[in-house]
Amino acid sequence: MSCKVAFIVNPAADSGRAVRRGDRIRRELAGEPDAAVFYTEYAGHAPEIVRSVIADSRAIVACGGDGTANEIANVLVGSDVSLGVLPAGSANDFIKSVDHGFGGGFSPLAYLRAGEQRSDLGKVTADGGFERCFLNSCGIGFTGMIARQVGRTTWLRGEATYLYALGRVLLGYTPLKMHITLVTPEGPAEMDESVFALSVGNGQVEGGRFRIAPHAAIDDGLLDVCLLRKIPKTVFFRYAMKYLKGTQIFDPRVVYRKVLAVEVELEEPTVMHMDGEVFEGIGGKIRIENAPSAIGILR
């Protein structure tokens, strides 16, 4: 295998502001024989680029948001090519759970010298043959709808986009009825709940600052489930403040468990997100499981 590191820049990330980050990456790597920089030109282009360069690369660096990293990771699963994450998106959640040595500047030159750690992934399967992995988090219902609204909100940037989307979704939101099986190391636990929010974390943070899984670790062989039971909308922002601190896990309306897998049965289709990537019309039976040490991460 070549020692080359391929940097894939998504110039549309962070509402198009990532193009400046991409230009800086290209300038800093100019003259580096072991680096190559590529720009995506349309939705779904990143996986195509990965497939074209994977045979000649030891690592692929995602230069965009969590969605760009997700697209690349789903191609790299099962290979010995590592994933690097150079944050240039609006939330950049996954990298916050990686014990890396890139500092706050995330110099692209540092990725050429970086070591590797193995990371778990979350693997989602659903009715209709759906199968996909996530790096950081998966949300069904409320957070899926928020992710969809974020994608529609192009006039804001960064964490403000997520806060605006949250408020918009909350106005018309109705909790979802779910039958849930938590497959824990100690054994299965079943529940029927009207669920306000269901998040499954491999990483700790979602939406920029919300600590949906404060005890999560990307290499522990487990996923962290955080389930908020039905609550009145009038008290939601009190819960939002708890999510910002990670203290919601101590609230009696919240179920927080470390699991090998979680199985969800929905009465009606809804919206799901995986690392901010939106999937609509997801219904029936959904299984979310840990895929241990499934990918190498530059650090």
Task: Give a verbal description of the structure.
- The protein is an alpha+beta fold.
- It has two domains: 4-114, 3-Layer(aba) Sandwich (Rossmann fold), CATH 3.40.50; 123-293, Tumour Suppressor Smad4, CATH 2.60.200.
- It is built from seven helices and 13 strands.
- It has helices spanning 18-29, 45-53, 66-76, 108-113, 142-152, 159-171, 236-245, and strands at 4-9, 35-39, 57-64, 82-87, 116-126, 130-134, 137-140, 176-184, 187-201, 223-229, 254-259, 261-274, 277-298.
- Strand 12 and strand 13 (277-298) form a beta hairpin.
- The longest helix is centred in the middle third of the chain and has 13 residues, at 159-171.
- The two termini are 20 Å apart.
Summarize the structure.
The chain has helices at residues 18-29, 45-53, 66-76, 108-113, 142-152, 159-171, 236-245; strands spanning 4-9, 35-39, 57-64, 82-87, 116-126, 130-134, 137-140, 176-184, 187-201, 223-229, 254-259, 261-274, 277-298. With 299 residues, the protein is α+β, with helices and mostly antiparallel strands. The protein starts with a strand and ends with a strand.
Low-pLDDT stretches are none
Rounded radius of gyration (Å): 19 Å
Biggest beta sheet attributes = 9 strands, antiparallel
Share in β-strands? 35-45%
Terminal Cα separation, in Å? 20 Å
| CATH architecture annotation name of the largest domain | Sandwich
- Principal-axes geometry comes out as globular
Overall pLDDT: 95
Structural class designation: alpha+beta
SSE string, helix = H, strand = E?
EHEHEHEHEEEHHEEEHEEE
Examine the coordinates and then state which fold CATH places here, giving the name of the CATH topology of the largest domain.
Answer: Tumour Suppressor Smad4
How many DSSP-defined strands? 13
Binned, the helix content reads 10-25%
Q: Tell me, what is the CATH class of the largest domain? A: Mainly Beta
Number of helices: 7
Please, how many domains?
2
